[in-house]
Amino acid sequence: MTADLHIHAAPPEGAAADWTIPQNWDAFTREEHAVWDTLFERQAKLLPGRASTAFLRGLDALRLSDGGIPNFDDLSERLMKLTGWQVVAVPGLVPDDVFFEHMANRRFVSGNFIRRADQLDYLQEPDVFHDVFGHVPMLADPVFADYLAAYGRGGLRALELGALPQLARLYWYTVEFGLVEEDEGLRIFGAGIVSSSAESVFALDDPSPHRIGFDLERVMRTEYRIDDFQQNYFVVPSFDELLRVTVETDFAPLYERILPRPSIPVAQLVEGDRVIHRGTQAYAAAREPA
Ligand SMILES: C[C@H](O)[C@H](O)[C@H]1CNc2nc(N)[nH]c(=O)c2N1
Ligand SMILES: N[C@@H](Cc1ccccc1)C(=O)O
Ligand SMILES: [Fe+2]
């Protein structure tokens, strides 16, 4: 199974109207399962003491360490009992409205392919390791599970209100790259971090990125980059607080206030005429535009 890098307007051949496809678990080769196992073992070593307790508990509760790419029917059965979520297969990126519709109905979509053994560290599109290892453990947490379902409903609303980029930043800085303050210290929970060996160290240990207390309006105004380690991470005090703030706030007036204002750019570190992306440098602060 290979990635289809294009976002089609209509579901591709073999996909249902909601873009889902059968996982066809039997079609994964030994090599593909071995890629999962390699990635899994690498992260399993790194994450104790780095990942949030909710994430580590989810890994256990869902038995993701059983070995090989998980069978979505078994996984969904376990997840359904815990929080009412399911995991469904899609060929690759799906249109925004389809993505939100599934989420609002507690279906998490996962790319039905895995990176090749020579691409362990970087890929352009979310594969089953990112989607399932990265995202699904958090869905075993009842509070986070409610947050993501509410986010799906919020997504459909943001589309109507013309505020998708603003709402997408909330996803980026929580679901993909969020940090959480725990009693023992800062922990990672964003799927983009926990599924990356380099960033799961960088996000907590590197001195260069900004670690900013969660503020809804600031998050929705802050741009992000998708091709490098983050320069900005936002820290939520707890998942209860994240859920409370996002559910209790009516986003419509917030969008109205934010949309006419400039967004907060990601600072770029420049050397001569060359932009240096690597996050091991000290970046200039992401300042509020005047
Ligand atoms: C926020 C925005 O809708 C986002 O880019 C969506 C689009 N479609 C997607 N489709 C898949 N399969 N996975 C994703 O993470 C997304 N993200
Ligand atoms: N309260 C948001 C919906 C939402 C909830 C939770 C997360 C994201 C969005 C709105 O009014 O649109
Ligand atoms: Fe993701």
UniProtKB/TrEMBL annotation:
<dbReference type="InterPro" id="IPR036329">
    <property type="entry name" value="Aro-AA_hydroxylase_C_sf"/>
</dbReference>
<feature type="binding site">
    <location>
        <position position="176"/>
    </location>
    <ligand>
        <name>Fe cation</name>
    </ligand>
</feature>
<dbReference type="InterPro" id="IPR005960">
    <property type="entry name" value="Phe-4-hydroxylase_mono"/>
</dbReference>
<keyword id="KW-0479">Metal-binding</keyword>
<protein>
    <recommendedName>
        <fullName>Phenylalanine-4-hydroxylase</fullName>
        <ecNumber>1.14.16.1</ecNumber>
    </recommendedName>
</protein>
<dbReference type="GO" id="GO:0005506">
    <property type="term" value="F:iron ion binding"/>
</dbReference>
<dbReference type="InterPro" id="IPR019774">
    <property type="entry name" value="Aromatic-AA_hydroxylase_C"/>
</dbReference>
<feature type="binding site">
    <location>
        <position position="135"/>
    </location>
    <ligand>
        <name>Fe cation</name>
    </ligand>
</feature>
<comment type="pathway">
    <text>Amino-acid degradation; L-phenylalanine degradation; acetoacetate and fumarate from L-phenylalanine: step 1/6.</text>
</comment>
<dbReference type="GO" id="GO:0006559">
    <property type="term" value="P:L-phenylalanine catabolic process"/>
</dbReference>
<keyword id="KW-0585">Phenylalanine catabolism</keyword>
<dbReference type="InterPro" id="IPR018301">
    <property type="entry name" value="ArAA_hydroxylase_Fe/CU_BS"/>
</dbReference>
<dbReference type="InterPro" id="IPR001273">
    <property type="entry name" value="ArAA_hydroxylase"/>
</dbReference>
<keyword id="KW-0408">Iron</keyword>
<comment type="similarity">
    <text>Belongs to the biopterin-dependent aromatic amino acid hydroxylase family.</text>
</comment>
<keyword id="KW-0560">Oxidoreductase</keyword>
<dbReference type="GO" id="GO:0004505">
    <property type="term" value="F:phenylalanine 4-monooxygenase activity"/>
</dbReference>
<feature type="domain" description="Biopterin-dependent aromatic amino acid hydroxylase family profile">
    <location>
        <begin position="1"/>
        <end position="290"/>
    </location>
</feature>
<dbReference type="InterPro" id="IPR036951">
    <property type="entry name" value="ArAA_hydroxylase_sf"/>
</dbReference>
<feature type="binding site">
    <location>
        <position position="130"/>
    </location>
    <ligand>
        <name>Fe cation</name>
    </ligand>
</feature>
<dbReference type="Pfam" id="PF00351">
    <property type="entry name" value="Biopterin_H"/>
</dbReference>
<keyword id="KW-0503">Monooxygenase</keyword>
